[in-house]
């Protein structure tokens, strides 16, 4: 039975002087380019949702062993209060690199796109992917490029409050990301109370698209297993989401060169941490029993003093709890030699930063 084996752990970026200044670094998106350079974009700010946040690109040319901060992505005019969020990278049929990300702004709506023709060292001025017919959208991970050059971007629309509503959305471009179809909902809440959050899409060797969802029962306020769905017509239609056989929250997936699919997920049940799992059936089900823990939270040992602050990394009341998470949002890619690279953020010694773990498949 194939398994995953950890090769090593590396820091992508950690505040070198946390005693002097606050720098909260989180929400990474990682992507291998055709020449095996790695790009990782993260949010940098003084706090998780501070108005001074910027999206920063880090680059590695040695398979993720060392990283260089190459610069900030452009910041649009008219930014309003709210958190900027990294989205994902795309690669056009011509080899150009796209970076999709979100800033809240006072006019217009949609995701922002910057372009690079030098492997992520420099970036163009911004274009916008209009979010119509949705008012505004959250990011949805790395983009998929089909064999015919069509690019697929994922997003998420949500309304909170007493009667929350949600939609997993996608759009397509046939001209290298210069123009895009209107966004459309590919999955909304189920009549059974299940909500499907944080859509991530990957492509298999045969061209099948697989979507992964963090799935939550909003009626019972309980997290359920991650669900996956598939499309065999380029995203035109999608199957109903089904239980993928493992519990998690935000989950990224990647179709591997071996034909397997790797999933990386937040695990906010004991043991808390970040996990990786393999699928041999195209992402329909994953081997939870042989999942690998990439990083874990060690609970504080309290003797005489009670814990006065309630834990914030929890499953319940997720629309509020989300604002206080201290680790997660893993993102995964693969190098040409088969090495799997996973980026995620953690909080250690009161510093929130981004690190990566390199893995390899191991056949028993």
Summarize the structure.
Helices cover about 0% and strands about 50% of the residues.
Plain-language structure description:
This protein is mainly beta. The protein has one domain (3-297, 309-362): Neuraminidase. It contains one helix and 26 strands. Strands 10, 11, 12, 13 and 14 form a five-stranded antiparallel beta sheet that branches. Strands 15, 16, 17, 18 and 19 form a five-stranded antiparallel beta sheet that branches. The chain has a four-stranded antiparallel beta sheet with strand order 1-26-25-24, with no helix packed on it. A hairpin with a 5-residue loop joins strand 15 and strand 16. The longest helix is centred in the last third of the chain and has 4 residues, at 318-321. It is globular, with a radius of gyration of 19 Å. Mean pLDDT is 90; it is low at 300-308.
Feature tags:
single chain; mainly beta; 364 residues; five-stranded antiparallel sheet; Neuraminidase
Task: Describe the sheet with the most strands.
Answer: 5 strands, antiparallel
| Low-pLDDT windows of residues | 300-308
Please compute the radius of gyration using only Cα atoms: 19 Å
Strand tally is 26
Look at the structure and give the CATH class: Mainly Beta
